[in-house]
C-alpha cells in the first residue's frame, strides 16, 4: 500500500507552517490553511502512479494526496465523464467546449471528491463523529461516507432553504439533522463553534484535507484532454471548489507535468455575489446578509474561501461573473435539451457563465473550455416542476 507524502499545513496569507492537526485557520493571523508538499520529490511517484493501467479516480492520484492508501473510505468517486459539446458549441461558434460532469459521482455531486479524502483523514486520526453545515450536497455526501466509515454524522442546515432531494439523502444515510433559522452562513458559524469544542471533525471546505480531494478534477481533465484547457468555468458559492481546482492545475505545473495553467472563470448568481462584487471593486469580500437565488447550492453570503478564490481568478488571468436566476434556469434547460445533461441550477451557472463570457468576448472561439457540472439535476426537482 502507498503511504501519504510528507505534508504540512501552510497559512495562505502569512505562510507560517504547522504540523498536520485539526486546525482550519492560522493561529497567528486567522487566515485559512492549505496543505503543501515537497513537490520536487513527488514527480516520480506521480508519474509511476499515472503509468499504471486502470480507470480514472480520485485515488489514482494518491501520490499527491495527504492521506495513506490503506483504510481509505471510498465509494468509487472520480473518473467522471468529460463529453465534448456538439450542438451548443456549434451554435455559439466555439470549437472546443467540454462538460466535466461531476454530477456522476456516487452521491450526485463534486463533494464526493473531497469527502473521500476528508473521511479517510477522520478515520486516520480516530474521529468518531463528523460534522458539517450544508446547503445540501455536502450533507448528502458526508452522510454517505460517514455511513461507509461507520462514523456518526451531524448536519446543520438552514430551515426551509435546502432542496428536498439533498436532505432526503442525508436522512437516508442516517445523519442527525439539525435545522436552524437563518441561512447557510449562520449554520457554518455554529458548526465551527461546535468543532472547536472538540470531539467533532468538521468536513466543510474549511478543512484543507477535503480541498485535496477536490483538486483531482484538474488532474482528470488534464488526462482526459491530454493537455490543460485554456479556460475552466464553474459556479462559486463558498469558493472551496474553484480554489481546489486551481491548486490542482498549479500542482501539475509545480511537478513539471505541464508548463501552463488555465484561466479560471467563477460564476455567481446575481442575488448571492459577494466574491464577484469584491473582484469588480478590487476590494475584500463584504458580507451579504440575505443572499437569494434559485441556485440553492451557491446561496452563500459569507464565503469562507473568498480570499483563495480571488487569488485563483487573478493569478490565472481569469474573471468573476454574475448571472441572473433566469439565465441559470435557461442554461439548465439548454443543457438538458441540447446536451442530454441534467444539472441542478447551481451547476447550470457554468453554462450561463459561458454564454455571458461569449457575448462579452472574454473567451476565444478556438479556446478549449471546460464547464464544470457540480451536481445532478435530480437533487433539486422542485425547480424544474415550478418552471413547467
Structure in words:
By secondary structure, this protein is an alpha/beta fold. It has helices at 43-50, 87-92, 111-124, 137-149, 164-172, 184-196, 208-214, 216-225, 240-254, 274-281, 306-316, 325-339, 345-359, 381-387; strands spanning 7-11, 17-18, 33-37, 96-101, 129-133, 152-158, 176-180, 201-202, 231-235, 263-269, 319-323, 368-373. The termini are far apart.
Topology:
Layout: E1 7-11, E2 17-18, E3 33-37, H1 43-50, H2 87-92, E4 96-101, H3 111-124, E5 129-133, H4 137-149, E6 152-158, H5 164-172, E7 176-180, H6 184-196, E8 201-202, H7 208-214, H8 216-225, E9 231-235, H9 240-254, E10 263-269, H10 274-281, H11 306-316, E11 319-323, H12 325-339, H13 345-359, E12 368-373, H14 381-387
Parallel strand pairs: 4-12, 5-6, 5-8, 6-7, 9-10, 9-12, 10-11
Antiparallel strand pairs: 1-2, 1-3
Helix pairs in contact: 3-4, 3-7, 4-5, 7-9, 8-9, 9-11, 12-13
Features:
single chain, 388 residues, Rossmann fold, 2 domains
CATH topology of the largest domain: Rossmann fold
Quantity of strands, as a count: 12
Radius of gyration: 19 Å
Mean pLDDT: 92
Q: What's the arrangement of strands in the largest beta sheet?
A: 4-12-9-10-11
Give a quick account of the main beta sheet: strands, pairing sense, barrel closure: 5 strands, parallel
* Count of separate DSSP helical elements: 14
Element order: H for helix, E for strand: EEEHHEHEHEHEHEHHEHEHHEHHEH
Amino acid at each position: 500500500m502507498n503511504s501519504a507524502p510528507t505534508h504540512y499545513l501552510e497559512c495562505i496569507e502569512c505562510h507560517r507552517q504547522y504540523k498536520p492537526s485539526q486546525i482550519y485557520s492560522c493561529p497567528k493571523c486567522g487566515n485559512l490553511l492549505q496543505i503543501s508538499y515537497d513537490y520536487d520529490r513527488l514527480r516520480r511517484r506521480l508519474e509511476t502512479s499515472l503509468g499504471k493501467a486502470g480507470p480514472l479516480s480520485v485515488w489514482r492520484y494518491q501520490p499527491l494526496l495527504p492521506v495513506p492508501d490503506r483504510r481509505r473510505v471510498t465509494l468509487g468517486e472520480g473518473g467522471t465523464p468529460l463529453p465534448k459539446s456538439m450542438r451548443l458549441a456549434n451554435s455559439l461558434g466555439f470549437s472546443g467546449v467540454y462538460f466535466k460532469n461531476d454530477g456522476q459521482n456516487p452521491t450526485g455531486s463534486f463533494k464526493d471528491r473531497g469527502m473521500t479524502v476528508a473521511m479517510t483523514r477522520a478515520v486516520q486520526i480516530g474521529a468518531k463523529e463528523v460534522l458539517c453545515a450544508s446547503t445540501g450536497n455536502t450533507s448528502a455526501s458526508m452522510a454517505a461516507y460517514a455511513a461507509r466509515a461507520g462514523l456518526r454524522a451531524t448536519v446543520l442546515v438552514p430551515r426551509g432553504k435546502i432542496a428536498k432531494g439533498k436532505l432526503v439523502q442525508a436522512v437516508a444515510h442516517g445523519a442527525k439533522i439539525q435545522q436552524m433559522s437563518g441561512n447557510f452562513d449562520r449554520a457554518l458559524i455554529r458548526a465551527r463553534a461546535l468543532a472547536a469544542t472538540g470531539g467533532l471533525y468538521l468536513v466543510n471546505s474549511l478543512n484543507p484535507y477535503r480541498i485535496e480531494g477536490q483538486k483531482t478534477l484538474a488532474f482528470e481533465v488534464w488526462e482526459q484532454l491530454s493537455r490543460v484547457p485554456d479556460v475552466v468555468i464553474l459556479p462559486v458559492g463558498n469558493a472551496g471548489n474553484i480554489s481546489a481546482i486551481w491548486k490542482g492545475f498549479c500542482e501539475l505545473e509545480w511537478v513539471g507535468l505541464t508548463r501552463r495553467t488555465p484561466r479560471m472563470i467563477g460564476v455567481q448568481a446575481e442575488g448571492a455575489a459577494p466574491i464577484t462584487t469584491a473582484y469588480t471593486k478590487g476590494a475584500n469580500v463584504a458580507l451579504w446578509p440575505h443572499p437569494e437565488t434559485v441556485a440553492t447550492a451557491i446561496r452563500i453570503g459569507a464565503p469562507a474561501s473568498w480570499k483563495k478564490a480571488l487569488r485563483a481568478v487573478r493569478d490565472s488571468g481569469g474573471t468573476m461573473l454574475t448571472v441572473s436566476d433566469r439565465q441559470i434556469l435557461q442554461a439548465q434547460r439548454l443543457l438538458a435539451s441540447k446536451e442530454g445533461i441534467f444539472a441542478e441550477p447551481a451547476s447550470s451557472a457554468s453554462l450561463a457563465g459561458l454564454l455571458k463570457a461569449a457575448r462579452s468576448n472574454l473567451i476565444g472561439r478556438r479556446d478549449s473550455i471546460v464547464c464544470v457540472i457540480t451536481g445532478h439535476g435530480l437533487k433539486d426537482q422542485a425547480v424544474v416542476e415550478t418552471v413547467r
